[in-house]
Amino acid sequence: MTVLRHSVDVLALEPEPAAELASLLCDLAESTRASGGSVLLPGGQPVADLRLVKGRHLRPGARYEVALPEDAERMALRVREWRRTSAAEVELLFGAPDMSGRLSLRLAAPDRPRLFEAQGRMWGPDGSGSLHRGSGKARVDLTAWWAAALLPPGAPPSARAPATARVKHLLGEARLYLRPRRAADGRWLVEAAVSLRGRWLLRPVAAVALLLAGGPLRRGFRDGVERAAEGWNEAVGELLALGPDGIREELARQAAEGRPQES
To answer: Out of the domains of life, which is the source (predicted)?
Structure first.
């Protein structure tokens, strides 16, 4: 087994702004209505690239088609649960000639977010074999995350990482662990650790391959974590700069305009 570690400094997203963002997303969704398959914003504009094709709007079992450019993958969205005091869960289904997949996203208590979970699987064309199949799941205990971020300097880290992910394939398995610590000026120091290993009879082969690729693998992991941190800082920085009213306006604008048009 190979273990890779790298720490990055990122902007903190505290509980109150996170709760405000989740509530704004729910408010926007619940302000819409369905008419003749179109999903309409409060002003009557249709939500771009989205149509209700089955069930009642925002009720369990409701299914939507997501319009994508020609020759792109097909995508659909299904509501599995929608109760703001309990949980909101949606399922994305997508398909392309060379790969299809299913992804479930669940947020517990959207008005006061405390747990986010995701799980999914991917598969290739019919008859393509197990090498084209994989699965994964992720879990972020938001309550534990914010508690870990409040630990004073020098305190031992939490025994269990508040954010974890696992990806499984016939050839190997990867597990990701994220742990935050409080840093200066409203930031977090987040340690990312990933363990890699082969599965079943391939473990010895994978161990040798990981050993030989150690240097490039560690550099690639470090660069990937740094890029993820840059993306997080950019997104969170924009959210904090916009504030609740600006976020509400931006969400409504994007819902009406849809995907960016190609030049």
So the answer is: Bacteria
